[in-house]
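In response to reviewer comment 3 from the previous cycle, which asked for concrete evidence that the modeling workflow produces usable outputs, we include below a single protein chain processed end to end. The sequence was submitted unchanged, and the resulting structure tokens are shown without manual editing.
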Amino acid sequence: MRANGERLSVGRREVIAGLAAAGAAVAGQANAQAPPPPNPNRWVHPGVKQVELWPGPGGYPWAASGIKQWTREAILRRVAPGRLICTWTTGGFSEPVDGNFTMIARSDDSGATWSAPEVLFRHAHRGLFTTELFVPRDGEVHAFLQTYSLGTWLTQIQSFRAVSRDAGRTWQGPHSIPGGIHNVWVNQGIVLASGRWVIPVSWAEQIGDEWCEPSAGRPPDEPRVGSRTPPQVVLPHGSDSQLIYKAANAWATRQHRYCVGAMLSDDGGQSFRLRGYLHNDDPRHFYEPKVVPLSDGSVAMLVREGKDGWLWRSDSADGGESWSPIRRSDIPNPSSKCRPLRARDGRIFLLNNPVGTDGKGGGRRSPLSLWISRDDMKTWETKVDLVADPSSNLNYPDGYIDEEAGEIHFAWEDAVRVYLMRVPMDVKPAR
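The workflow returned the following structure tokens.
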């Protein structure tokens, strides 16, 4: 993977052509791929502050860098006083492809300025997603990342953790998650008053007869289970990656159910154990759970579902050791990730796309809204649209509460750009 003729390697600080996020002039911008112009129909709440972090005014790097006009899953974290890091996934034409990798930008002035983005994690021959930056204390960051292959995607991921003890400057690992947990999609965790880490996860379980994933061309061997030959999808020889992706995704949907639970650690991350086994026969596709502490000491888990059109919920009264049966909540959701955050005064702030579906699949992820509750999500006293765009998906808000500034800071993306937004905690509807 090259930019301006020079090889990129994890840990080096070269600047990729076109990554002018801080407004610096970068050589090679003439070869940049400019992203489409912003949609003039996009509405942004006038009371918020928003900046574009990626790709910035220089546009996307030249195609030879391997970075295409595609971006997903931005994560924003405060990792030390005044220090922020933001990561996102890019590379390849979409997700999941073997060219996906993670990039990072850093700020040492609370987000006023940002470093030029650089590669953080990239696997030699598998796709890679970084889905959580867990910060249990100032300066310490646990990055949870998953690798995969195009034809198997979420069904056969490999899970890893990399640890930084200098606020994201240098990293140890990636290593396996200690405790034998190796095939989970890790999401945003919390630290309880007891010091326990509760980190929600989701995973796929095969439940159908098509044991083997789709194959392009003639498979090397016929699958066999005793005297039985299980069915297998065989694609035409030379099928491109987009056709393989579509066939593999359909196979995964038919043959699997997706379950949720939580990894717990009582020793500062030296070991983890998996608790909770939340699933349903119909619907059966639960993904990317999020957890938030409640005023009585219990923990609520909000869960994305594949087609139902609502967030689902489970609760734990014992610090994540056991969970109530998963049930549908009254919060609409178009099969997209949400982000609940609890403030010191007890308010819960929920970043979400509060849009239902027709029950046939994910709907349009617009608007991106903030709901505020003072009674542990029993009711919502405030519902505020932050961004609306009828022609785009407004994806995956993730961030933290800056109590001193009285703001919610988060990153989000529209599959092309990464934005950073600051929202006053007392924000009011503007439309």
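The two ends are 46 Å apart (CA to CA). We consider this sufficient to address the reviewer's concern, and the full set will be provided in the supplementary archive.
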